[in-house]
Each structure stands twice: as C-alpha cells, then as structure tokens.
Here is the input.
Amino acid sequence: MDSTHTIPNRVPTLETERLTLRAFTLEDAPRVTELAGDKRISDSTLLIPYPYTLEDALSWINTHSDRAARGQGYSFALTLKTGELVGGFGLNTNLEHARAEIGYWLGVPYWNQDYITEAARAILNWGFETLALERIQAHVFAGNTGSIRVQEKLGMTLEGKMKKYYRKDGAFLDAELRSVLLEDW
Here is the structure.
C-alpha cells in the first residue's frame, strides 16, 4: 500500500440504493444463525458448516474487529434500508500485494433480487478507492451458477478452473477463479 492511503482499522458503513452495508454486531448472531443455517447456504460456501449454530455465529462475528484492525479483512452485514439483515460479504485483503478476495452469502428468501451484485459494486469500489487495491478475485464452486453470474455482472473474468480444488463434507469439489483489475473496473 502506498503512503497516500491509510489502512482503515474498522468496517465502514456503505450505502447503496437498497442496502446499508455495515459491521456485524453480536446482536446480529441470532439472525445470522437463522439465515446461514439453511443447508443451501452451506452447500454453496466453503466456510459455513451445516448445521450452523449460534455459537458459530458468535465466534465468527468476534473475529471481525481484529481482522479489520490489522487490515486483513472486512466483513460487511448486508441489511435492507429497513435494517433487516439479509446476508454477509467479506473482503479478505493482502495489502502487501494490493489484492483481495471476496466471499459472500445471502439468505435464501433474498436470492435472485441482485442484492449481492449491488453490495459487491459498493464494496469493490471501496476496495479499489480506499484500499488502493489493484486486483479483486473470487473463487467459486464450479456449478454455482448464481455466484458465477454475480461475478460476471461485476466484470470478473475467468482465470482458471481447478479440479478437486476444495474438500467439503468429505467430497472434492471443482472450483473456478475469476478476477477484476483496477484498470478494468
């Protein structure tokens, strides 16, 4: 990171047309448990187990402030303008190399409404502008058409397909890697 940029030590609040993106709080844990506890969320993500417990949510939320304080990552709660929590979005950073990886999940009742794409645009803008990133990438399970479509809408280009890249629940899964560079954003 160059000397003209300061590394934020906390998750900022970002606004979009329909969403407020903010830091998670421990009060969000029951809602995170409810939404992330759906097996369909676990099936489409690497790090969300099934079943997903309140203890899982509390433990996960408790890691956020330290990661942000060290500039290692920023976890955003996705909320509707009403304040209703609908999902989560992570930007895991490697500031030495001016890159980050995104990951996200959205409660099943909110699928197919472009909330993740809307949130991602705001977070990628923030990452490129505030963190001076040159590259933002995302891995996705091959066949996760919803997530692949989000990445395509963001202008992320396919860089590779990796066979048996992840092991989840005892099975090996293929993955794809997409990225977008600052110059193309």
Observations:
- The helical segments are 29-36, 39-44, 54-62, 64-69, 115-130, 145-153.
